[in-house]
């Protein structure tokens, strides 16, 4: 029984048996197998009674965002970017990697943004709480990924980052723009209550220029000269431009987060800040808003990024985000960016581990397992081993699924898996009475014993009904007929029929005699072969030579002795073929005698 929990609250299993004593084992990622269990001493084991009623095992799974519709879209689109990145990195020169990684990172971000748009469009027709949670998760993913791009991947010469951080704030915190639009839509914008808040906010995220020192000095001079004393609001704007920390801190309510405050402060106090000094600025901003007790798990991720601590960034992402998609792809980007740097040698191993976790989740889903296999291809020996295990355990629900499994296994040279799947499908077809399909799967499995058994089944059916099962398949066996002796005989015997139908009696007779003399034919099929030879023996022109006639006579003699011997011991192996042979035996002997005489005369006249 499967149970899925969509939240982190309490859940219960309404089962009186399991309620008394419960035991659980890990069944996979985010999966727990729960069942009744009670430890007993040696004395209790002798007297304990069986549990009353049925005993059930429960599979408890935590709900993953990856199963949502928006995530499915992200999963299916991002795998293409991931695979192209792996291929491109292998071929790229060292100086070409950075623009390539920036491009792929932005592709991931655009996919997340497309999912956000999809969430916004579907708000009216789905569960509002789930939609809200999904939107918040996607927002966090894009916010973190864009900061990682700035601080780790798209690093500017000299380590200057403020310009990128200003744009990062502007894109993700639009409160200022919303206030500005609200004020501008009124008849008198300067009288609107949000007017000056919009001005303050606009100043705090303005674009930095190389002339900032000049106009900051000019602002300080005018402020000291009292040029703005008549307008308190303009005086506040001037103080912001001068980098007055007290004034900026007084406007904290207009800033969404501590990192909004940090960027605004740096813009007018230290616009040339380097990446390695961001941590100090971040700590000052956090202190200004009330200290670390007011920070959130998301803040911890961003703070770790500003400390350039890749390991902590990945660790905090795992705590904040309810999916393995993000950590797997972010770690992949970071590994390609800085995996060979001193102090970052742990990244390749961590990347492989997180990719394995992500792929493990995907392969457990009925429609995403193929995507999971593609990720496992890039996880070294562990990925290969897991791919084999997954392909072996997938349920063979229909032919379409089977062909997908075989194709995936074939692309990776997993021959044992192909053989195993084909063998299972062959036996399934045989149990359903579909001999043609069974022989096809048997040939693909390269199972000589099984294909030989199937060939015998087809020959027995031919003896009983006088027709071939799946004759078109037998006509196109090709080299596959060499898999077993019986299958070889079956394929050649079918060729004999085709020659006979086309009127090629000479070649048909030669092939028929070779099948008899080679001993490929099962003994129960000898009567059929001799009966097939009868019309050829009676043809107007001799098509069976004297030597071939002797071979047929020898076969007839052995078959006669065998039939008499088996008849005394009990019923013959194939009553239908034996009865027909006994009825025609005299005709066959006479035809052989006549053909031998004609063949000797014909061959003698040709020699003369």
TrEMBL record:
GO terms for molecular function: structural constituent of nuclear pore. One of its GO terms (biological process) is positive regulation of DNA-templated transcription. The gene is nup85-L. Belongs to the nucleoporin Nup85 family. It comes from Homarus americanus (American lobster). Component of the nuclear pore complex (NPC). InterPro entries: Nucleoporin_Nup85 (IPR011502). Pfam families: Nucleopor_Nup85. One of its GO terms (cellular component) is nuclear membrane. Keywords: Membrane, mRNA transport, Nuclear pore complex, Nucleus, Protein transport, Translocation, Transport. It is found in: Nucleus, Nuclear pore complex. Functions as a component of the nuclear pore complex (NPC). This is Nuclear pore complex protein Nup85.
